[in-house]
Structure formats: structure tokens, C-alpha cells
Amino acid sequence: MGSRVGETPPETFSKVLMWAEITYRLSTGQGLTGSESIRSVAIGRDGPKIGAFFTKSSRPTISQSLKDLLAPDEKFKGLDLSRRALGSLLHLVQDSFAKGHTQRKLLNPGDRLDPGKDDFKPGTWAKLGEIQNYHTYKMEGEQAAHHAEYDKFDVTKDWAGLWGAKDAIAQSIKAVNFWVEKRRWEDGVEDWAKECFKYAADATPSNTRV
């Protein structure tokens, strides 16, 4: 989730929270419609605005719209941009619990069958807490292989068998319920996002170790 090796936890957190707010506001029509240029979006708490990551020659360019960012070259005439934005938010939430993207504190190490493995006692699963490292992704090599390993799962099995899945599902349900209610970002959604993506006091700069 970090954009580079060595990125500090506050840097990554501010970017994650920025995108969470943009996608949530867009999904609920709270101040964003998708027609806004990337340059004009002023959302961002303690870090750069989204326009800082685009230029006149990037794809999309800084002058193109949020719709161009979320649905580039979209051919489907029935596109619902609010649902596309919600999907992006859910992707962000779920990645934050995936072992290939973050290292979170394990809250129940005593439930492991073997301290060195991810198998848990029957009826238990990995219960995850604050983020200790926002990993950054390499497209090749050992880290990429490990990332791919955690992307594979037999969906006919109990989700308890996939690291982080239970927590990711619970947090996704909260996000969807906020969306259904059209809850205002300021009325509890922001607090939820800050808690969901929170990093630990001893969190380390982004790395590629999975």
C-alpha cells in the first residue's frame, strides 16, 4: 500500500485516507460527481492532494476527470460511477487486511496451531489489529510470488482459512452500510476509516517483505 520502499507510515496513511474519502464521497454524491478534474479535487488532510500524483502527460492527465480515473475508456453504457467508486473503496479496505499488502498485529497468537504457520485452531482465525507495515509492491521476484500466493483461495471453503478475510468482510459490511444509509463522511465514516487503516505506534517504513 506504500508507494515506495521507505515511505513513512504517516505518509501512506494520509494517502489511503485521502482516497477513502474521495471514493466514499463520490459513491454517495457528497460534493463529488465524477465530472471534476483531478486537479480541482481539494480533499486531503495532512498530505498532498490527488492532483500531486498526475501531470499533463500522465494517464489520465491532471486535467481529466475523476470518472476518467475510475473508468478509463469505459465502453459499458450502463456504468454506475457511484458503485464503481464504492468498489474501489472496498478494494482498499480488503487490501489493507491482505498479507501481501500489509503486516498487521496478530491479536490472538495463542490460537495458532504452529507459531511459524498460518493454521489456527478449529473455530478460530487470524484476528488482526493495527498496521505495523504498509507494504509496497514489486512486480517480480520473491515478494511478487508471495503476493500472488495470498491472492489464491478456494472460495467454497470457510473464509476463516484466508488470512485477514474475516476482518476484511466485517469492515466491508460497515462501509456498505454507511453507503446504503448515505451517511455523511463527517458523521462517523471518517472516524471509521481512520480506525480501519490505523497504523501502530511502532509501525515501520514501507518495505517489500511479506
If you had to describe this structure to a student in words, what would you say it looks like?
- It is a single chain.
- With 210 residues, the protein is mainly alpha-helical.
- Helix content is 37%, strand content 9%.
- It is built from six helices and three strands; from the N terminus they run αααββαααβ.
- The protein has helices at residues 9-28, 66-70, 81-95, 142-150, 165-181, 185-196; strands at residues 102-106, 128-134, 199-204.
- It has a three-stranded mixed β-sheet with strand order 1-2-3, with helices on one face.
- α1 (9-28) packs antiparallel against α3, α1 (9-28) packs antiparallel against α6 (185-196) and α3 packs antiparallel against α5.
Attribute tags:
single chain; 210 residues; mainly alpha; three-stranded mixed sheet; 6 helices
